[in-house]
Design brief:
The chain has 350 residues and is α/β, with parallel strands linked by helices. It contains twelve helices and 15 strands. The strands form four sheets. The protein has a nine-stranded mixed sheet with strand order 7-6-8-9-3-10-11-12-13, sandwiched between helices. Helix 8 (259-272) runs antiparallel to helix 12 (333-339).
Length: 350
């Protein structure tokens, strides 16, 4: 019995149960050396099963194709360096002509990488088998992109609820990634088409898909506008929110020259949400300055200091800004903390 409890690596004792074959001890765990989390897109899309969620026609397919091209050739996506790896893009809503046109637009007519691999059709009911067959031929880590899940979502089995179906499918996708260390299985999926206080609740379908996924990435962008947000949460990846821009109808880029800059821009946008133009300008000005007096803001925005002082007082009273001391204001604490990560950022007051 002591062998089972304290030496689980040795399963040779006659009375050891096969049910305990995977039992581990704290001593075993303490001496393991696990590799760090591997990212397909640094800071945003890690290894494991990842759901990319957003409304139809918002530009999700442009984003995942950008990532696929960058990963297959070691290029850039969102302005970030993307590690090179074997990549399979299941573009199940596209054809060869559209794929060629989109690749050429993203690559500015440069040759499409020879290592870029894609499928536009899979046998009915065989998408999971197709992914498994391709992964078995690749070196780890790899990247698989399924665009979109709704195109191949199977019906529920007899006696199976919608939640059970969603969790079953999500678990299969997760298993592919788990069986290939460092691999990312990125699934393009539509949202609920309804507002949600928690962005995880925007995932279309039951909570089975969200529950099975390792990471959820939500892409939002108001119609007819370029500015959007990427929101990230997951089991291993740090939660984050990053400002992005959709330029020219096909090109996604961070709003800033780094993840920290994009995070600061997202927090600044959130702080100004629901405000009038002038108040929003003042919030943005304080975010830019780091620490600011009414005179500083007035000078930056070419306003009268008296009017700026009134706005600053109201914004501090509503929690949009922080009153450091009389006549000195700072951004929201989270935004202020992010500023120290940026080039030229000021240190928060002590």
């Amino acid at each position: 019995m002591s062998g089972i409890l304290y030496d689980p690596i040795d399963h040779g004792t006659p009375d050891s149960s096969p049910l305990l074959a995977g039992l581990r001890s704290g001593a075993w765990l303490d001496v393991q050396d696990f590799p760090p989390l591997c990212y397909a897109v640094p800071g945003i899309i890690p290894e494991g099963s990842v759901l990319l969620v957003g409304p139809p026609k918002i530009g999700k397919s442009w984003l995942v194709l950008t990532v696929a091209l960058a990963a297959s050739d070691g290029g850039k996506a969102l302005g970030l360096d993307i590690p090179k790896r074997p990549t399979l893009y299941l573009a199940l809503e596209d054809g060869d002509r559209r794929m060629q046109d989109r690749c050429r637009r993203l690559l500015h007519s440069q040759p499409i990488p020879r290592s870029f691999q894609y499928l536009t059709r899979v046998d009915h009911g065989r998408v999971l088998d197709t992914v498994a067959a391709w992964l078995d031929l690749q070196a780890d880590p790899a990247l698989v992109i399924l665009d979109t899940l709704g195109k191949v979502m199977p019906p529920a089995l007899n006696g199976e609820s919608a939640y059970q179906r969603d969790y079953r499918v999500g678990s299969y996708l997760k298993q592919f990634a788990d069986d290939h260390p460092g691999t990312t299985v990125l699934v393009n999926h539509h949202d609920r088409k309804a507002d949600a206080d928690d962005f995880v609740d925007s995932v279309s379908g039951t909570h089975g898909l969200a529950g099975a996924a390792d990471t959820i990435v939500v892409l939002t962008r108001p119609r007819l506008q370029d500015d959007g947000l990427v929101k990230v949460t997951g089991r291993d990846v740090p939660e984050g929110e990053y400002a992005v821009r959709f330029q020219g109808g096909y090109h996604w880029a961070l709003n800033g020259d780094s993840l920290a800059a994009a995070a600061a821009a997202a927090q600044s946008t959130r702080a100004a949400a629901g405000l009038g133009d002038r108040a929003a300008d003042i919030v943005q000005a304080v975010a830019q300055l780091g620490l600011a007096s009414p005179a500083d803001v007035a000078d930056l925005l070419s306003m009268e200091p008296v009017g700026v002082r009134v706005y600053l007082t109201r914004l501090a009273d509503s929690g949009r800004l922080i009153r450091v001391k009389r006549g000195v204001y700072a951004p929201h604490p989270l935004l202020q903390a992010l500023r120290v990560l940026l080039p030229g950022g000021r240190t928060p007051p002590t």
